[in-house]
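Please decode residue identities from the backbone states below.
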């Protein structure tokens, strides 16, 4: 997949998160999509990977869904477009995204505060 196509899919995913549109999120996820969360034992989250478009969409809404005090931005994560989620300029999540064929196949959701310090806005 080209970088442009990957970027487009991530932007659409971010927009669906902001709207809290579970149906649109699920439509962007592959049927076998997998989401892995890293809360580091400090932030509640699933201990095992979450699988399937509907289940991953529900997880995303629960962990990233647009609250009024939340900024969700498309930013470079591991050299590709991903998401940074901040509240009051402090990162609360960073999401790496893997795509194939125009859909999201995997999400790596970092929630561990010990790993997010470099993502805070100053």
């Amino acid at each position: 997949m080209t970088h442009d196509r990957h970027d487009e899919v991530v932007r659409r995913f971010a927009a669906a998160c902001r709207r809290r549109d579970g149906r649109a999120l699920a439509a962007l996820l592959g049927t076998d999509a997998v989401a892995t969360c890293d809360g580091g034992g400090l932030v509640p989250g699933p201990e095992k990977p979450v699988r399937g478009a509907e289940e991953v969409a529900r997880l995303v809404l629960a962990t990233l869904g647009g609250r009024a005090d939340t900024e969700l931005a498309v930013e470079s994560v591991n050299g590709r477009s991903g998401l940074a989620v901040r509240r009051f300029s402090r990162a609360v999540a960073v999401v790496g995204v893997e795509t194939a064929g125009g859909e999201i196949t995997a999400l790596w959701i970092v929630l561990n505060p010990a790993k997010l310090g470099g993502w805070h806005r100053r």
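Observation: The longest helix spans residues 3-19.
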